């Protein structure tokens, strides 16, 4: 139990249990950062797209068959 709270100044390391906790926290942080970045890029991409014109909306609504 007492070994879990020790820090080694020579090898700059923690106990194996604490190292595992720190590693899990880093992995979680990296995953969260990646997901936030992907979400932001998706929102930016959606904002860049122009809205449909009335003609395009009618084509989609009516099932375009060569004429409006």
- Percent of residues in helices comes to 55-70%
- The tally of domains stands at 1
Structural class estimated from helices and strands: mainly alpha
Assign an overall shape: rod-shaped
> Main β-sheet, in a few words?
2 strands, antiparallel
Task: Write up this protein.
The mean pLDDT is 81. A two-stranded antiparallel ribbon has the order 1-2. It is mostly helical and 68 residues long. Strand 1 and strand 2 form a beta hairpin. The chain has one domain. The chain contains 2 helices and 2 strands. 62% of the residues lie in helices and 6% in strands.
Question: Any descriptors?
Answer:
rod-shaped; 2 strands; mainly alpha; 68 residues
Helix and strand layout, with pairings?
Elements: E1 7-8, E2 13-14, H1 16-48, H2 54-62
Antiparallel strand pairs: 1-2
Task: Offer a quick outline of the entry.
It contains two helices and two strands; from the N terminus they run E-E-H-H. It is mainly alpha-helical and 68 residues long.
